[in-house]
Amino acid sequence: MAREHGLNPIDLKNERATKKEFESVIKKQKPVCLILNGHGDDGMVVGQKNEVLVSLGDNHQLLDGTIVYARACRAAAGLGAKTVGIIKAPKTFIGYVHDFLFFLNNTQTATPLRDDYAAPCLNASNAIPEALLKGHTAAEAVHKSEEHTKKEIQYLLTHYSPAASHILFALRWNKAVMQLYGDKTAHL
Predict the structure, then answer these.
(1) Residue ranges per structural domain of the chain
(2) 3-state secondary structure at position 162
(3) 78-89: per-residue pLDDT in tens?
(4) pTM above 0.85, yes or no
(5) How far apart are CA 97 and CA 130, in angstroms?
């Protein structure tokens, strides 16, 4: 999708999701937008083998001037709340101040986006980077995610599934704990 909009994505997945690689790529490429997908905690996002990629007080200055979307538990509570607005900090940070929730169907864990339990939450959260890549502002991207969440909730309320109550809880929870810090009008 990024290439369709004239952007050159850098994908650090699997064994490339290390601190050394992350720092090297950020310093060389100076991206305007970072989409981080990993595990997190207050003030950090981790990559391969739970190696810390970026953390508050260590290398958060690498995020300087960027639009950051982090689908990582609690990362926004530190990296977003405590860095936006200071010198050498992200321009905008969208993320989750508590755990990001989704459920997996044990028979579909290898393909989460095709997993009927995980897809509603993942698709709603994916609406943020998709909107950013299309040139929408940070606030519009969050709104698109909220609208997607509402549609998923409406669908689940009218279509029975054994996991519906769990998925509904996760959708509502993720919407409640998503936070946008910084420049709401930032866009690519």
Answers:
(1) 3-182
(2) coil
(3) 998 888 877 777
(4) yes
(5) 21
